[in-house]
Amino acid sequence: MEHIRKRLAKCEEGIQYLSQIKEGSDWGNLSGLTNRLTGLKTSFYDYSEEHFTDEVSEIEEAVTFLTERCQEDISPMDRVRIVRSPLRFSLKDILENVYEDYTELGGEGEANIDPAMVVAKANILRRVKGRVFTQQVMVIGHEKGHGEEFRNGGSSKPWGNEKALRFMQVAETEGIPIHSYIFTPGAFPVEEYPGAAQQIARNLYAMAKLRVPIVSIISEGGSGGAEAIGLSDFRLMFSHGYYSVISPEGAAAIEGRVGEGVKAPKELVEQCAENLWITAKDNLELGTIDRIVDEPPLGAKHDDFVFFKRLRYEMMRATDEVVLKTKSLRAFRAYEVKLKNAGDDSATLENEVDNDLHIDISWELNVDERKRLVALRYKKYRAMATKAYITDTSRFGDFYKKASFRTAKIYYTVVYDILKRQQKQVEKVIKEVSGEGSSFVKRLTAPFTAAYDFIAHKPGGRGRAYSSNSGRQEAMALEFGDTYLSPLANEDRTVTCPNAVTRGCKDLWVPDLYGEFCGVCEICGHHFPLEYEWYLNNLFDRDSIREFNSKIASGNPLNHPVLRKKLQAVKNETKRKSAMITFQAQVMGVDLVVAMLYSDFRNGTVGAAEGEKFVQACELAKLQRKPLLAYVHTTGGIRIQEGTMGVIQMPKCTMAVRDYVDAGGLYIVVYDNNSYAGPVASFLGCSYYQFAIRSSRIGFAGHRVIRDTTGQDIPPDYHSARNALKRGHIHGIWDRREFRRNLHQALMTMGGRNLYYR
Questions:
Q1: Degrees, nearest 5: CA angle 731-595-391
Q2: Confidence band, pLDDT 50/70/90 cuts, at residue 339
Q3: Three-state DSSP class for residue 94
Q4: Does CATH number 3.90.180.10 belong to domain 86-342+350-382?
Q5: Interatomic CA distance for residues 149 and 154, integer angstroms
Q6: pLDDT at res. 437
Q7: Are 683 and 656 in contact (CB under 8 A)?
Q8: Which residues make beta-bridge pairs with 184?
Q9: DSSP letters along 601-629, please?
């Protein structure tokens, strides 16, 4: 009877699993099956073995039928519940079954700086024509466990992401690939150093140029928490996984304006899961992943050993493909084509999984191959989400733009990489010699200097040298309010400073506050918000702003039922096409490229259009050797309605920043008002030079999200600029009235070895 008892237990597990997927509903008469099974368990010794065998067989058939039926009409929200089930396989199961042996690093179990992030040095075996070959890899991933509370549901804390980055760099030192497994609903939202947002940004910034192959695979991919270890050369996704900008419940709470402590209606949650395109097939169609790894019906569990065999093959296959793309030998290229063709033939693929491979591919890369690897990684992300925004540029316009860019590239290469470099060498030689030798060298190198002066220093030219005298004259010529006065100053009333009780501030007359005082309380220095136009007109030199990429417009790549109307309304209201303005300008005579996120357009949220404009701003600043300023008037994070088309902007834009900074650029970020979530956790938070306007707020998540996630209340000033400075997230706080002077000083004193005025 023991074997019948085991079959009965298996049926019970299957019914419970179906109930979890259908969230307790009486789908398929699950309650009736449960009652029948309970009755059999209580009367186990009342019937004959033959009778019990027949009863159990009927229940098994019913469970199998319901499993197949559930798989046929599975919904996106069903997949979310599958990956959240404690019966689903975990990273530890993968380490035990996919890799030959492993050593966990950075802690074990609860004795760990962050049990939600597991790192292990592992060996993976491949058989080639009867011979066994061992490859070393660094395995990094989230560990949800099977219900252990100390794992925090796979939500990694900042120090867990820091641990992951540390061992990624170890893998780079040792020259071994990285296998990254993503099992997280999102990052744990704490601001204590190193900070949730800032650490994710550091991870992305470092991973952009790691010189080893990175393969990632997604089971549960929750926004920034997933991106912290998800930037990779090849992105896989389990067939029952999900990858999203936000959880469906979170999206429903926002869409339905659900009050705190109240659950969103189930129907709305289901609809949001549909609208966000979170499944593996959706993301494959969108281009955010490269391939899907099939699972058994209703997802793999910890004892699905055939699945682990397939996963092992897929991870090796993906790593091989990444390595092969860096090779130049024809034999390797031919094998790569063979692998791709095998992927289209399921029978051939199964044969590859079950039998020996035909060739052993070394995962070690030489210097040239590492450079090619990094270049291909940038190219891969650069091409993502390029069809998710709107542009009215024609084919001829695209051709003209590309031709102009290439022409400009030649021009600036000649000016800065050849002539200016030669001029610097000339100046160095002149300093080292003296007397008649100096005069001789000057005559000898005069043609190079004259050519550079003629091209780079032409009147009004883009490459003209900076003059400190002209900068001082410009600073004196422009005072705040000379060219623009905030419309808020037209109201004849008084306002009370928020610090009136604690600091004794007097009531402020609005015309003075928003006119002469630039929105700053004269007693305590509190900064009242000002519209972004104030900065456009008062921060930069008069008539120096030249906007570019204004035709790139925010779109609705997922055909979200709500977004289209909202976008059209805000475009009509603001007379702009996206939440980011990119332009070239001058500050006290210094040329720079500016990317500005502003609040009037969807609260400054970032989608595909904003990401593309930012990347092009980085590329222009790199090309022209100009400093890059990201001024954040306000950003509410990634635009939820664009789904993973918005999330992918985090690694995409961060890689553009890394490419620009590595080329010798100067990247400065200035936060104002409210700056939260994805942008701060990526292309903003990765800057070496981050500043904030006084009274601004910077953070990863808002008060409600922190309270719901951590169960803790936070003080009102938790996200204040002052606290951000204390935590080391920013490097200074600027008074709005000193913004222009401080920015100019930063441009003159910070970074940027290859800037045009250096």
A1: 155
A2: low
A3: helix
A4: no
A5: 10
A6: 52
A7: yes
A8: 221
A9: TGGG-B-HHHHHHHHHHHHHHHHHT--EE
Sequence spans of domains, the chain: 1-73, 86-342+350-382, 487-529, 530-749
- Among 75-84, 288-297, 333-342, 538-547, where is mean pLDDT lowest? 333-342
In the chain the first and final C-alpha atoms are separated, in Å, by 85
Residue 670, both tokens: 């200035």
Are the C-beta atoms of 553 and 430 separated by less than 8 Å?
A: no
Confirm if 300 and 89 have CB atoms less than 8 A apart. yes
> What pLDDT score does 454 carry?
62
- The architecture in CATH of the region 530-749 reads Alpha-Beta Complex (3.90)
Per-residue DSSP letter, 638:
B
Mean pLDDT for the stretch of residues 515-529: 93
Of 714, 746, 744, which is closest to residue 730 (Cα–Cα)? 746
Task: Assess whether the region 86-342+350-382 and the region 530-749 belong to the same CATH fold.
Answer: yes
d(CA 376, CA 723): 39
Q: What is the tens place of the pLDDT at every residue in 365-378?
A: 999 999 999 999 99
Q: What is the pTM of this model?
A: 0.89
The type of residue at 89 is F
Instruction: Measure the CA–CA gap between 675 and 429, rounded to whole angstroms.
Output: 49
Total residue length of the chain: 758
Residue 302 main-chain phi, psi, to 5 deg: -70, -15
212 φ/ψ angles, rounded to the nearest 5 degrees = -135, 155
The one-letter amino acid at 408: A
Q: What's 642's DSSP letter?
A: G
What letter represents residue 231's amino acid? L
